[in-house]
Amino acid sequence: MDSYTVSKTTLQTPKANMDQAKFSEDVMHIKDHGSTHLSQETVKKLIHQSQEAKQQAYCPYSKFRVGAALLTSDNCVFTGCNVENACYNLGVCAERNAISKAVSEGYRSFKAIAIASDMNDQFISPCGGCRQFIREFGSNWDVYLSKPDGSYLKMTVDELLPVSFGPKELSMKKVFDIPNEY
Fold this sequence. Notes:
Layout: E1 20-24, E2 27-31, H1 40-54, E3 66-72, E4 76-81, H2 94-104, E5 110-117, H3 128-135, E6 142-146, E7 152-156, H4 157-160, H5 167-170
Parallel strand pairs: 5-6
Antiparallel strand pairs: 1-2, 2-4, 3-4, 3-5, 6-7
């Protein structure tokens, strides 16, 4: 398996008119019936998936496990875990693994990402690099920072990375043209 991990855990299917989950090969689908915000049940499932993804973390150097569960705009969930490397800067964070897996499957629009670690005293927060990576796909979607007991703090990408730089800024009019002399 590549450096990402996809959870294959079975979820209980709730009663009619509530969230439903179904699996398709490597992707879990969560159906949130028409709501513009995520139901409490969907948030709990997403956090649970991030906690399960954390179990697959490869972190022999830091011993700091992180898992992520990413919810796409059409309610598919992709999970990822951190994967360290002896050459430290080649390690990959859980958030980037989950997003990269989704992008490799054609997804570009996301509703939320949940992040889990083993820290009891504070909520896990994405590193600066992950904040920018998450921002690449929009600034107005939800990030759930969780603890092992399932409690969480909900933030938007904009709140995590205010006054951010994104794809739109690359096409903005510039004051002057710089000749390419290289």
